[in-house]
């Protein structure tokens, strides 16, 4: 269909009135560039520097209703979050993010300011990590879908995988744990405060710099916490063929989080242990390593003893370890 078939072509208010190429123009006009970008949006593909001849590449999808709700989060928030979850995956490999690509599905009747504000959010979060949006695609569909691909540069360091943890290592974390889940619990019950938790749910703040820093400190394994600490440490434990024991007394449960837990009848430790979407970075390090203050040691790596491979205070965690899109609680 041609663009602007109805409505006012001079002040298009919906995506359909603006048309595909008008929307692309609106989106790309908001972007900035960085020294890593040799060629940005506008051609068949972008050209991004890859100084050490390896490219870190990752992709994650956000779907309306499943990952965000328009009555809980602004388009700008969704953009920040969509970029953050991908930038965090790059950082969790020990790499520095360089570029993002945005795959966007929107309904025709969506007001134009939704995708443009989304793009502002993606651009601003990319800026936090010194990366840039270099391209993407738009198409029409019933459910808003935001699919971002991120690229990163290892800067001559080895990638920190999920498979390098060794018995005797310590487990350490930096960033937030359980804040997004507490915010989600608040929003689900129809509240909008306490703000700090609701904001953490809307806009996670992954410690991007900590990923490459951990690689430099000799991290043996690393991941970001997207699904929940127990679930994500489970991936390290399985890939590394080890057991990981988390010591719950080393985990920070802020007073305000305990208050929310009390109000909604949830043990706040459950949010800290199994809440995803904060994108904290958790890594294993050789025991003798002196870690900067922002890393908190929360457990240790042990020889394998069968299942479960992640324990809390030496005991199995008999509830879900985190989010599973196809798990028993999902429909
Ligand atoms: N559809 C797919 N095709 C190919 N590889 C996939 C697909 N889905 C996941 N993977 C790969 O499986 C691995 C684990 O994926 P997963 O999405 O759980 O990790 P993540 O992105 O770190 O976590 P999250 O999605 O919770 O943020 C990644 O290496 C990912 O690239
Ligand atoms: C409306 C709404 N309902 C539920 C949630 C909670 N949630 C969705 S996906 C996910 C884990 C990470 O997903 P992925 O593995 O796809 O990155 C979590 C904790 C939300 N954010 N918004
Ligand atoms: Mg993923
Ligand atoms: Mg990840
Ligand atoms: Mg996941």
What does this structure look like?
- It is a single chain.
- The chain folds into two domains: 15-153, PurM-like, N-terminal domain (60s Ribosomal Protein L30, Chain: A, 2-Layer Sandwich), CATH 3.30.1330.10; 170-316, PurM-like C-terminal domain (Phosphoribosyl-aminoimidazole Synthetase, Chain A, domain 2), CATH 3.90.650.
- 30% of the residues lie in helices and 22% in strands.
- The protein has helices at residues 15-18, 20-28, 75-91, 113-128, 179-188, 195-202, 210-216, 229-240, 255-264, 268-274; strands spanning 37-39, 47-48, 56-63, 96-106, 132-140, 145-153, 170-174, 221-224, 243-246, 281-285, 296-302, 310-312, 315-316.
- The strands form three sheets. Strands 8-10-7-11-9-12-13 form a seven-stranded mixed sheet.
- A hairpin with a 2-residue loop joins strand 12 (310-312) and strand 13 (315-316).
- Helix 2 (20-28) packs parallel to helix 4 (113-128), helix 3 (75-91) runs parallel beside helix 4 (113-128) and helix 5 packs parallel to helix 9 (255-264).
- One magnesium ion binds at residues 89, 92, 223-224, 226.
In short:
This protein has 331 residues and is α+β, with helices and mostly antiparallel strands.
CATH fold name of the largest domain: Phosphoribosyl-aminoimidazole Synthetase, Chain A, domain 2
- Note the run of SSEs as H and E: HHEEEHEHEEEHHHEHEHHEEEE
Q: Mean pLDDT, rounded to whole units? A: 96
Helical amount: 25-40%
**CATH class (first level) name of the largest domain:** Alpha Beta
Shape, per Cα inertia axes: globular
How many structural domains are formed by the residues? 2
Strand order of the largest sheet: 8-10-7-11-9-12-13
Structural class comes to alpha+beta
Q: Give the second-level CATH assignment, the architecture of the largest domain.
A: Alpha-Beta Complex
Q: What percent strand?
A: 15-25%
User: What is the tally of helical segments?
Assistant: 10
Bound molecules: adenosine-5'-triphosphate, thiamin phosphate, magnesium ion
Rg is 21 Å
